[in-house]
């Protein structure tokens, strides 16, 4: 038997199993539709965060266990990452822009009231998530940006400080000495793939949009979702953006519906990865709306990711999702696998869960096997096999 024949039969078996499991899930959902809360049990309070940022998740979990609110937990967890400079992509001293300066983005969403606050491209203030919370609680606005966001923070009592460090400045100097590679310019002169600026625009030409280089050390965001003892849901993000971005760039993190989204009645989601691509699709909002339609969190996250991949097959990113019962899931594309941190009554302590990611232009056996058993795990959870 040839290798191609074996692969074909293996695919057929997996997809047949997936179809059978889907039929079982449909029957269960029809049955549960007639029962209060749809056969679901609550696994709350709980907290989940993108990546293996366990210190941040531990802090959020401790806040919830001290009967803190979901908003308290999200802000506390984001603050830990800002202080610890998680992977160099959160907080001060990371991701210098093309002028060598670090700026911060953050977002806080209250799923009970649908109030939210955010800051973008904020300079010289370390506690971005705390400032975002004050935008939510002390203004009628949603998003403040640039130097005006900095002035708001100073008015609210935050101290102005330099966000650059020796490491971030050395990183920028190395980038400059490497002819400013990589960068985010396109259709300009001189050739941005060979030279630094300043640049001037070329005559407009139609070109296919490209994804940016994103990996485990340049993934842009911590996203945290928390559900407290009252069942209230909050979500938030914090980041210092993409390395060597054009000064003034604001990514997806502070954009409601893109970086994160939360609604008490359905659940919440947060995204991470190539922020310039993510924000074009509002994946967190997409995932929450999918849960509204009855999809489980993992499937809702998958739908959000697949929408992006249809347009940008080389994109790299991930979405975590939680429904109002505390069921969690994630989906990713472009990475080998994606870790997220979680703490809940079911896990009892902070755990790191890995999700296999889909890959561009390839058939990924590990990914499709995992996807097949997402619905099967749902069956198991209902009947507690």
Give a verbal description of the structure.
It is a single chain. The chain has helices at 3-32, 54-65, 70-84, 128-138, 146-155, 166-177, 275-278, 283-292, 297-309, 365-383; strands at residues 46-50, 104-110, 115-122, 143-145, 188-189, 200-201, 222-227, 233-239, 260-263, 267-273, 317-323, 328-333, 337-343, 351-356. With 385 residues, it is an alpha+beta fold. The strands form three sheets. It has an eight-stranded mixed sheet with strand order 4-3-2-8-7-1-13-14. Strand 13 and strand 14 (351-356) form a beta hairpin. Helix 2 (54-65) runs antiparallel to helix 3, helix 3 (70-84) packs antiparallel against helix 4 and helix 8 crosses helix 9. The longest helix is centred in the first third of the chain and has 30 residues, at 3-32. The model is unreliable at 372-385 (pLDDT under 50).
Q: Can you tell me the overall shape?
A: globular
- The counted number of beta strands is 14
Number of helices: 10
> Strand share of the residues?
15-25%
State the major sheet. Answer: 8 strands, mixed
Termini gap: 37 Å
Q: What is the string of helix and strand elements?
A: HEHHEEHEHHEEEEEEHHHEEEEH
List the strand order in the largest sheet. 4-3-2-8-7-1-13-14
Low-confidence stretches: 372-385
- Determine Rg (CA atoms, Å): 21 Å
Query: What percent of residues adopt helix (DSSP H or I)?
Result: 25-40%
Report the mean per-residue pLDDT as an integer: 88
Oligomer: single chain
Helix-strand category: alpha+beta
């Amino acid at each position: 038997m040839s290798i191609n024949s074996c692969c074909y039969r293996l695919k057929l078996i997996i997809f047949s199993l997936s179809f059978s499991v889907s039929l079982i899930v449909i029957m269960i959902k029809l049955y549960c539709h007639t029962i209060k809360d749809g056969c679901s049990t609550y696994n709350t309070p709980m907290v989940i965060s993108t990546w293996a940022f366990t210190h941040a998740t531990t802090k959020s979990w401790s806040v919830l266990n001290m009967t803190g609110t979901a908003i308290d937990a999200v802000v506390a967890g984001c603050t830990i990452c800002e202080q610890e400079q998680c992977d160099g992509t959160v907080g001060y001293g990371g991701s210098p822009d093309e002028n060598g300066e670090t700026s911060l983005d953050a977002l806080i969403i209250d799923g009970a009231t649908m109030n939210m606050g955010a800051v973008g491209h904020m300079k010289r203030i370390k506690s971005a998530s705390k400032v975002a919370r004050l935008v939510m609680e002390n203004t009628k606005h949603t998003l403040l940006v640039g130097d005006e966001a900095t002035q708001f923070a100073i008015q609210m009592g935050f101290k102005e400080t330099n966000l650059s460090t020796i490491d971030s400045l050395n990183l920028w100097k190395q980038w400059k000495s490497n002819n400013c590679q990589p960068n985010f310019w396109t259709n300009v002169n001189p050739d941005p793939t060979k030279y630094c600026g300043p640049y001037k625009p070329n005559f407009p030409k139609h070109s296919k949009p490209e994804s940016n280089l994103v990996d485990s050390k340049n993934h842009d965001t911590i996203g945290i979702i928390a559900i407290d003892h009252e069942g209230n849901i909050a979500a938030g993000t914090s980041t210092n953006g993409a390395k060597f971005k054009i000064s003034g760039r604001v990514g997806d993190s502070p954009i409601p519906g893109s970086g994160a989204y939360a609604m008490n009645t359905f659940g919440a989601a947060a995204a991470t990865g190539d922020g310039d691509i993510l924000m074009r699709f509002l994946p967190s909002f997409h995932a929450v709306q999918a849960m509204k339609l009855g999809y489980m969190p993992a499937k809702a996250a998958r739908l959000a990711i697949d929408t992006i991949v249809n347009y940008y097959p080389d994109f790299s990113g991930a979405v975590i999702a939680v429904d109002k019962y505390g069921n969690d899931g994630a989906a990713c594309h472009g990475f080998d696998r994606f870790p997220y941190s979680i703490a809940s009554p079911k896990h009892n302590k902070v755990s790191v869960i890995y999700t296999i990611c889909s890959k561009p232009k390839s058939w990924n056996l590990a990914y499709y096997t995992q996807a097949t058993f997402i619905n099967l795990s749902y069956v198991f959870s209902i009947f507690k096999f």
